Amino acid sequence: MSNENAPLLEMRNIKKDFFGNVVLSDINLTLQKGEVLGLCGENGAGKSTLMKILFGMDVIRETGGYEGDILINGEKVSFETPFDALKAGIGMVHQEFSLIPGFTATENILLNREPKKKNVISEIFGERLDTLDYNEMTGRAEAAIEKMGFSIDKDMVISNMPVGHKQFTEIARELSKEQLKLLILDEPTAVLTEREAEALLESIRSMSAKGIAVIFITHRLHEILSVCDKVVVMRDGFVVSDVPAAKTTVSEISKWMVGRSVSSGTSRDIRDMSDGRTAMSIRKLWVDMPGETVRNVDLDVKEGEILGIGGLAGQGKLGIPNGIMGLYEAGGTVEFEGKNIPLNSPRKCLDASIAFVSEDRRGVGLLLDESLEWNVAFPAMQVQNKYLKKYLGGLISWRDEKAIREVTEKYIDELAIKCTGSKQKAKELSGGNQQKVCLAKAFALEPKFLFVSEPTRGIDVGAKALVLEALKRFNRESGVTVVMISSELEELRQICDRIAIVSGGKIAGILPADRPSEDFGMLMVSMVK
Amino acid sequence: MNETLDKSNLNFRERVSEFVAGFGLPRLIIAAFLLLLFIAAPFVGADFWTQISNTINRFSWNAVMVLAMVPMIHSGCGLNFGLPLGIISGLLGATLSIELGFTGPMSFVMAIVIATPFAVILGAGYGWLLNKIKGGEMMIATYVGFSSVSFMCMMWLLLPYKSPTMVWGLAGKGLRTTISLEGFYDKVLAKILQIHIGNLSIPTGTLLFFALLAFGMWAFLHSKTGTAMTAVGSNPTFARAAGVNVDKMRLLSVILSTWLAAIGILVYEQGFGFVQLYMAPFYMALPAVSAILIGGATVNKATIPNVIIGTFLFQGIVTMTPTVMNSMIHMDMSEVIRVVVSQGMILYALTRKTEATK
User: Hey, how many other C-beta atoms are within 10 angstroms of the C-beta on B131?
Assistant: First the structure.
């Protein structure tokens, strides 16, 4: 009894607990055909769990199922597996890419749903040996890409694509399914640059115009306002508000999300330091970092400033700190306080009192299996012989557990790191808190110069504000020169004094942070290769 | 009423399963099995105190070789299947010390002194090799161990040893497979402060010597260098970004492990009373590897308590099964059980790369 007036999707009184720990209570949602729903909330608010329920993920059933009803077109459904959800016309684009790196976009888009042709062998041995109909595949992939409204190269192999295009490939894959009625996008813009994100929003609009409903999960609130019909905000497993997007503002949403008001960072205090001393001067720097090649960078960093480095993904902004700190092969000259810093040697940089917070938190930034104490104190211990007790006239240097605990607890307090104690393992913390540990590690080195790479990637609004605030305070109170690399221009404009834009592996230009964002946008695309 | 009962039941079950998870199921099974053997011993006519003495004795012989596993596990080089290389250094020390005419306790000291440069040089070469093949250490290590044993099988025959206590009687050249340490360093550590109470005898000196090395290892892991070594094992990229020379740390850990293996075999010989050459070192790595795994270590985490508990459990089973099981079922099962336990333990550990137990 498919009811034409019934909403496309209705969720009634959804409840879910993980072994007694309630993560969702009394969730009610309705979604009409072609409607775009923005779902936001801090990390751990229950957004992902809700989507997993809707998509019939195994993890829900394995942990005892859920309570409440899901209705599609007025009919009650219960998805046992994601395949059931796919059949019902629900598609999902995950945060992690589920693409095959060695296949082209077309092959990925139509994987396991390829149009096929009979051949001699398959006539005998059955349809598993049918030949793929590449012409038909190209046609369908093109149609899906067309539907999406953002053009990607359908013949490019996934492993050669920039992250943004991988994201679009996933979306195209969902769109290529004929029966698609509802598309769930879980933080699709987190890895995209601003322009790509804009293109994605455009494609969401065009999907909605074609009658596909979209649930759009993101931390970037202005995106929600620009594209969604209504906004649902979750906090601690409850829906705290459900309003039309036109009737709310970014600051209101962030207030609902965190349950407190977040300063939107408009209180800028940009300083002009152009006649200050040059702390670091970089000449003819090249860095061989895969996907982030730096070709020829000349840059002067003034003492005591916060310099932002922005740019599109893949243009080389991440290569600059990674190259200088010796994590990837680099060449050129880098002078710090008048002294030449040898490249390709992390130790020399650290000895010169330069510290680095890597964008790769889990890979480079943390000892996941060790305690917070180790994570915070380790570099300072190795480089500067801090937190050590000396015996036998310095012959034996032992860890000073007490000093290590003290410094860790100090930073846990200062940066409001949520943990059970200084002995907790780093891998047990959430993304935002892990990022704070990475900062604490760099702060413990008491550097004169700090590189911070993508400090807010993948963390929620509340944690983001705290991290930026901590960086700013560190700069102001200790007079440390900070170079912050970020894909989010807004964030750079919040705390930086000047912003350098990298394009095509070179510095395209440096502007004061209070210039309008269009100016930066122009620079970003100026030398793209 | 019923409800509260259920709840306490559940709590008890939870507590048990938590304990099992914390202590490690295999370790629990092996400990229970060993306990059973000790309880069964008097019933099959084996003297309880003699059994305890045997177990402690075997523990004292083997503990240092198990300790040799620790540094390489910490630096992320995995389990040292190349232990025979260190053992060969120890054997060179032992034979050269006798060849040079040292006797009594002095021969033990000189064996250590002579073995050290061999261990450092061979360990450095082995470490250099392991740095070239990061990720496949354990497989390469196995072959390094095996091939070095085979190479030395030739060298024991060819090297110009002359001492009549060691060479083949008729030919007058080439070392014998087994050399008695009577008059050299037989029981030289064990006899220090040895305790005899009835049938119980404890080789205090050997235990103290192990305690000294174990303390040294524990202290080293608390030092700046030791901390760096653990960090290298935990996340090499992190360590490199913190200015640590990863290759150097790994090299150091391999040298340390090789040296401890050399000392380990000398301690083993002084307890056993014989130097065993040729194929003897071939199978020495597996018991040491499985002992530390039974102790609760994993491929990337190990502690001193892991060494002590593991050696005790493993050697306990090896000593107890022949006496108890054989008199119970009149069949030689000990070797079978030893092989099942040791190989099974290694297999189990390699399939799970999770947390070490406490």
Answer: 16
